[in-house]
């Protein structure tokens, strides 16, 4: 019995630490540690608030797993660096370019939201 409680406590402790990392309401900025030392300030991004204001109901275009016939296919909401490497050596889109392309393209098309460096990388 004692052992059982110890295991339960351990599981609870692990959940307390893991759950917030997967909860998108808690995301307030984008600061991927894979970049190492940042050249620019991290980007404020209130996940749910941003998407509500922008009127984005679904999880596309942001969370996808590939493209078919020119359309992005929805994928699990995981961190971008899982699929877009910080450095690519074949000239393909790297992580920084993936972020820029996704965020800036939509802001340009919507004619709303920041498009200049200092508006996203706020000091
Ligand atoms: C719409 C918002 C947006 C705009 C506009 C934007 N960026 Fe970014 N940028 C991002 C996001 C998001 C990341 C990923 C941030 C992270 O994980 O720290 C990023 C990452 C970067 C990185 C790699 C991380 C680092 O700091 O070393 C650099 C360098 C960068 N941006 C420079 C620029 C420059 C220069 C401009 C203007 C020409 C610019 N960005 C415009 C959103 C933006
Ligand atoms: C405007 C773009 C955008 C939309 C729309 C969006 N997200 Fe996200 N989401 C992000 C970004 C950016 C991150 C942070 C990725 C990172 O830090 O690597 C993120 C992170 C997450 C994470 C945490 C992932 C992890 O492993 O850390 C979850 C969960 C999540 N989003 C769920 C959702 C769900 C569910 C929807 C649809 C209802 C959604 N998101 C819509 C951009 C978006
Ligand atoms: C499960 C893997 C996976 C994840 C996670 C993922 N992507 Fe992608 N993404 C792809 C694939 C595959 C493509 C299509 C091939 C390519 O252009 O690299 C793609 C394409 C793109 C494109 C080009 C879209 C177009 O219309 O040409 C952008 C921009 C992009 N991803 C940004 C992001 C951002 C930002 C995130 C995190 C919010 C993210 N991706 C998460 C796999 C992923
Ligand atoms: C599919 C469209 C779309 C994508 C993708 C998108 N945005 Fe936005 N964003 C918007 C719209 C629309 C607004 C303007 C909302 C308003 O105020 O009406 C906006 C506004 C913002 C603002 C202003 C403050 C706020 O929260 O309203 C910031 C900062 C921002 N976006 C950052 C980002 C970053 C960083 C990314 C990439 C991770 C991103 N956005 C991706 C549509 C998008």
From TrEMBL:
Q: Which residues bind heme c 3?
A: 117
Q: Domain Class III cytochrome C: where?
A: 37-121
Q: Span of the secretion signal?
A: 1-23
Q: Which cofactor does it need?
A: heme c
Q: Which InterPro entries match?
A: c3_cytochr_TmcA, Cyt_c_III, Cyt_c_III_dom, Multihaem_cyt_sf
- SUPFAM superfamilies given for it? Multiheme cytochromes
Keywords for the protein's UniProt record, in alphabetical order: Electron transport, Heme, Iron, Metal-binding, Signal, Transport
Bilayer-crossing residues are none
Q: Which domain of life is it from?
A: Bacteria
The record's remark on the cofactor is:
Binds 4 heme c groups covalently per monomer.
Coiled-coil annotated spans: none
Residues at which heme c 2 binds = 80
Identify this protein by name.
Cytochrome c3 family protein
Q: Which organism is it from?
A: Pseudodesulfovibrio senegalensis
